């Protein structure tokens, strides 16, 4: 069976205030063309269809057109909700839409109920695991522990139990939206971690033939059977080195996997350039970036006059301007920035406790309080966005 794995469309998202709706429409055109050109039998969309819980009307219209066009190809489509989506809103009308071959899996209670798609070698069972927020689904799964690994493990137990009751030789595909250990993140994914507790091991998905992941925006293979499709477009300059693709996966009669990447259209390349303003304006090696979307980091010791106006004379599509003056090792601002670099919110909070208590850091119960407070803030923010 030939499967096209994609995720993280983020319909409605802009890039530094530049609308990406046209680029997203071009990607969806490419998606439909790929389905037809490669005789795809199933499209799987691993979450974050929209960029926010209440998407703009133009994004909803784009999604609606995509569903109609996929249905017209005759391909079966399975998609799940991600942490950016409102599961309830995305799942409205799922029962009716299913009649057209588009299966929306947004209810955690349905994790163990697959979409069955036959080919000449038997059935392939597609299980949709929407984004599972531990504090909201723990009761549904009767999870003994709090955390992403616990609820995902419980959901996968349902998948394996259902699969065990099916005919021998039934192959399986799981869609999930999660941060799996070994994955390389970028700056554009909304954080679902608190001190790293949301990272789950790839082994939680053992027992199935292919795992189609969403959430991380870089296309990557955690293992041969566990892969991220990545986002079809770049949504931050941290993705400037990404090759944006989908996975075209051939699932063999005994669960063998052969996968290749299908490139997505690039509306405009990204470039990160760094140096003093005069150097950036004069360096001939930067000519290749003159038509790119540019993030410029200026290292001038003193902020130059009208830097954006001067930059856009050479790089008209400059979207982001960052000031990072080169500082000596004895500069207190430089040392403070280095101390914070790469540290999580949990670590920064613990460092603050140690600072105000004369070096005495938090004990384990206090760490748990800090962890809980950070988790509550993150969940409350996500809930308010979903109710907006």
TrEMBL record:
Encoding gene, per UniProt annotation: sbcD
InterPro entries cross-referenced by the UniProt entry: Calcineurin-like_PHP, DNA_Repair-Maintenance_Comp, Metallo-depent_PP-like, Mre11_N, SbcD, SbcD_C
Family statement drawn from the similarity comment of this UniProt entry: Belongs to the SbcD family.
Keywords annotated in UniProt: DNA recombination, DNA replication, Endonuclease, Exonuclease, Hydrolase, Nuclease
Purpose: SbcCD cleaves DNA hairpin structures. These structures can inhibit DNA replication and are intermediates in certain DNA recombination reactions. The complex acts as a 3'->5' double strand exonuclease that can open hairpins. It also has a 5' single-strand endonuclease activity.
Example GO molecular function: exonuclease activity
Designated name of the protein: Nuclease SbcCD subunit D
Boundaries of every Calcineurin-like phosphoesterase domain copy: 1-217
Source species of the chain: Streptomyces hebeiensis
All residue ranges annotated as the Nuclease SbcCD subunit D C-terminal domain in the record: 267-355
Pfam family, one: Metallophos
Assembly behavior: Heterodimer of SbcC and SbcD.
SUPFAM superfamilies for this protein: Metallo-dependent phosphatases
Tagged with keyword Hydrolase: yes
